[in-house]
Amino acid sequence: MKLIKQLKKGVVVEVIAGKDKGKSGKVLSVSRETGRVLIENINMYKKHRKPTKQGEKGQVVSVPRTIDMSNVKVK
């Protein structure tokens, strides 16, 4: 419960578990209902976008995904 109170938007955290272990970044959003946080440039995944207009090409975009609160610590 203590960690949830400390995690806010804009706080710098370090990842302590997972594929991005050891990296740090700024918290972009916190979801207290699901217990997950979105961190800048952490847990990036590729997403395929369809073309929206006629003649436009589709593209692959990198987007961040949320990570569980238990896998981060406040720096």
Briefly characterize the structure.
This protein is mainly beta. The chain contains one helix and seven strands; from the N terminus they run αβββββββ. The chain has a five-stranded antiparallel β-sheet with strand order 6-3-2-1-7, with no helix packed on it. Strands 4-5 form a two-stranded antiparallel ribbon.
Describe the structure.
- Strand 1 and strand 2 form a beta hairpin.
- The model has no long low-confidence stretch (mean pLDDT 90).
- The chain is elongated and about 50 Å long.
- Helix content is 7%, strand content 44%.
- The protein is mainly beta and 75 residues long.
- It has one domain (2-74): SH3 type barrels, CATH 2.30.30.
Number of strands: 7
Bulk shape: elongated
Order of helices and strands: HEEEEEEE
CATH architecture, by name, is Roll
Radius of gyration: 15 Å
